[in-house]
Amino acid sequence: MKPNYRRCASCRKLAPKEDFWRIVRVHSSQTVQLDQGMGRSAYLCPEVSCLQAAQKKNRLGRSLKASVPPILYQALEQRLAKARAVDGLKPDRALE
């Protein structure tokens, strides 16, 4: 079976959807959340540059047609720091 490909909302890279973080605007409540729910979705690479560009240029908000709360960006930064710590990099250097 062919993998499902998605495009990063920030850098426009095309890759299998398992390589991305999924951000969802839930249809019924119009709230924005991570990973689960049915509704409009946007995908983001788990990289510092993509996260910073998405926040600075409001790329997630435009893709989802909704405002993205700052706490969601903080949650993504924490995920990125954890991933960098697991990879053996220092967490504070990952967010520079």
The outline comes out as globular
What is the count of DSSP helices, taking H or I runs of 4+ residues? 4
C-alpha Rg, in Å? 13 Å
Main-sheet strand order equals 4-3-5
Distance between the termini: 39 Å
β-strand amount: 15-25%
Q: What number is the mean pLDDT?
A: 85
Helix content: 25-40%
Strand count, sense and closure of the main sheet? 3 strands, antiparallel
Q: Label the structural class.
A: alpha+beta
Beta strand count: 5
Order of helices and strands: EEEEEHHHH
Low-pLDDT stretches: none
Would you kindly provide a written description of the structure presented here, covering whatever features stand out?
The chain is an alpha+beta fold and 96 residues long. 38% of the residues lie in helices and 22% in strands. The protein has four helices and five strands.
What's the short story on this structure?
This protein is an alpha+beta fold and 96 residues long. The protein has helices at 48-56, 59-64, 70-86, 91-94, and strands at residues 5-7, 14-16, 21-26, 32-34, 39-44.
Task: Record keyword descriptors for this entry.
96 residues; alpha+beta; 3-stranded antiparallel β-sheet
Could you outline the blueprint of secondary structure elements for this entry?
Blueprint: E1 5-7, E2 14-16, E3 21-26, E4 32-34, E5 39-44, H1 48-56, H2 59-64, H3 70-86, H4 91-94
Antiparallel strand pairs: 1-2, 3-4, 3-5
